[in-house]
Amino acid sequence: MSDPRDPRPLDPNDPRPLDPTGAALHADAAALREAGAVCPVTLPDGVPAMIVSRYRELRDFLADPKVAKNAAHFAALQEGRVPAQWQLNAFALVKGMTTADGDDHRRLRGLATKAFTPRRVAALRPRIEELAARLLDALPGHADADGVADLRAAYAYPLPMGVICELLGVGPAHRDRLHTLSHQLVSTTTGGAEAMAAQRETYAILARVVAERRAAPGDDLTSALIAAGGSDGEEARLSDEELTGTLLLMLVAGHETTLNLIVNAVRALSGHPDQLALVLAGEVSWDAVVEETLRWDGPVANFPFRYPITDLVVDGTTVPRGTAVLAGYAAAGRDPREYGPDAGRFDITRPAGRHLAFGHGAHYCLGAPLARLEAVIALRSLYAAHPRLTLAVPDAELPPLPGFVGNSAAALPVRLDPPAA
Predict the structure, then answer these.
(1) Which of 96, 133, 307, 392 can bridge 148 by disulfide, Cβ–Cβ 3.0-4.6 Å?
(2) How many CB atoms are closer than 10 A to CB 17?
(3) Left (φ > 0), alpha (ψ -120 to 50) or beta: where does 403 sit?
């Protein structure tokens, strides 16, 4: 973002470009939040947008029935002002729950909910614990000669990726490639042509998965989604485009965000040894660690897109009809208007449950229970095995995850069992 600390008042004629590298996400988020509840910004290729960055205004905006998700309401897109090959097209144009409204959204979400039941999630606990234990057994083997291992690559990534792929019925042969492709889809540093190519390849892989599950249904989410809706007639079923779009959403959201959450929690605990001591002593739960991480350093910084279907006034600022609006989760999570003067402090004793990391309203994240379960198991298991784990480099030197959508470090070098001082 171009000098976000510029004290000049923001106006629709003076939008601030969002930094596509995400090099200073929290500083940029704070500057926008303190400039106003809603601010004009510029997206890659000069596409105009706005961002809502304060907690209460964002909460209300996310639940407002006059705000749509379907890109048919995206004025710049409909007017031809968005490049055909654009980095953020996957967020705007994928066919599925995240870009549907009204009855269409209720139909798509209802079918996914039938397959994504609490019973299915609860039944995953033993498998998540087993996978975490296996990864932890192998973790020392990933350390270099200095005893340093990349926790992101060796633990935080394969755990949720393994879980979501097993849940979807995606075989191991596809997993690493799908992770690479999903990262290209969510990173705002990816070029437009590369992002569109990644989307096409992802759809092709998922179409093969669907074909395999149609030929040989199993006890997996893809098979359940294929079968869902039968009692309501053929019209209730997911079309092939909707099915692959839903799988794309679940694959990306089902591992990228949980991966970031685990990394961010380890970073937070490493930088706050007093907080780590509380949870290791059993005085505070791992659930509280996860909730405070979601608030303080959530896995998504700025999520695209919503579009007002009429001019809306947010805290005195007009958001014109058809504007592409981002949800400023990173900014809202540290809003002192909601959390008090210590909003910027990581504190696992803070009352939990009041954050927007999983969204709000009709589009609240369907996978939130699974993400919470995976993160708690991942962290509890990790620190049970390596309670003295430390970062191998200062936190400020960790490379940021490229992009302004996801929020995390691109690598997490740690010493599993550092020598005693």
Answers:
(1) 392
(2) 13
(3) left
Of 379, 389, 380, 378, nearest to 415 (Cα)?
389
Give dist(CA 330, CA 33) in Å, integer.
10
- Count the neighbouring beta carbons within 10 Å of the beta carbon of residue 235: 7
Phi and psi, residue 298, nearest 5°: -65, 165
pTM of the shown model = 0.93
Three-state SS annotation for 330-397 = HHHHCCHHHHCCCCCCCCCCCCCCCCCCCCCHHHCCCCHHHHHHHHHHHHHHHHHHCCCCEECCCHHH
The token pair at 307 is 């579009």
Residue type, 143: A
All domains of the chain, ordered by start, with CATH? 16-415 (1.10.630.10)
Residues 82 and 49: beta-carbon distance below 8 Å:
no
286-296 and 273-280 helices, crossing angle to 10°: 150
Q: What's the rounded Cα separation, in Å, for the pair 212 and 388?
A: 45
Residues 13-25 pLDDT 10s:
579 999 999 999 9
Tokens of 54: 């304060």
Amino acid letter, 404: F
Distances (CA, A) of 412 to 22, 54, 229, 405: 17, 30, 43, 19
Phi/psi at 67 (5° precision) = -115, 125
The span from the CA of 264 to the CA of 269, in Å, is: 9
pLDDT, tens only, 170-208 = 988 888 899 899 888 888 888 888 988 998 999 999 999
